[in-house]
Amino acid sequence: MFTKIEDFTAEWTSEAELTASVLDALTDDSLGQEVIEGRRTLGQISWHLVRSLHYMTSLGLAFEAPSRGEEAPDSAAFIALEYRRISNNLLNAVRTQWNDESLRESVMIEKEAWLNGSSLRYTIMHQVHHRGQMTVLMRQAGLRTPNVYGPTYDTWVEKGIAPLI
Length: 165
Ligand code: NI
Prior knowledge:
mainly alpha; DinB
């Protein structure tokens, strides 16, 4: 869990930039790539990443919601733009509406007490989880994925290094 707003600020800033870089690599055509037939698409997962940030308002934070409803937009550029806006809104809300003490306070969610500092950690892990799903679907859709926590296959090849298996 986070115990200091400044620690969350630093981590969120770099994690949100990684997520945005993955969203930037999407194309409109790729948004229809499905996990399996009839299940979530790349577009739906991407949009879920944007919308889920707003769930943090259930912890008492107040900030503007995404400008579209549950249905995933068909524009990759719009999704990336909205992600940047909402992830910034979330960070501003945490920095201006909470302090280090707030992180030790808890909120009941489905009969379970969640410390705010843990909810912030969970929010980052939730993004990482879906970002990992996205990069696989992006490969399947024929897209190149950006480096996230290390070089991708293509980056190794460009550097003239044999990619690790
Ligand atoms: Ni999710």
